[in-house]
Specification:
Blueprint: H1 2-27, H2 30-65
Helix pairs in contact: 1-2
Length: 79
């Protein structure tokens, strides 16, 4: 589950990264855009992993707080 959340966050972050760096290319220079891209590329992966772990842990914590519903056991006459 953590990898799925991580992948979604990483894709969203990298799309935003590319759009931001393309804008920096147009406003300043290609060197500024390229430098920002490399820095943000690594930052997005690190932040996406931390957020994914936090989201999944919070969700699993809420699932553990719920009262457990016992599943009925099968009754068999065979011993």
């Amino acid at each position: 589950m953590v990898l799925v959340v991580f992948a979604v966050l990483a894709v969203i972050g990298q799309v935003l990264n590319v759009l931001l760096c393309l804008a920096l290319d147009q406003i300043f220079s290609p060197i500024a855009g390229g430098t920002a891209f490399v820095f943000l590329y690594l930052l997005v992966f690190g932040a996406a992993w931390l957020l994914a772990v936090r989201i999944v842990e919070r969700r699993e914590g809420k699932m553990a707080e719920r009262p457990q519903v016992r599943q009925p056991q099968l009754q068999t006459s065979a011993r």
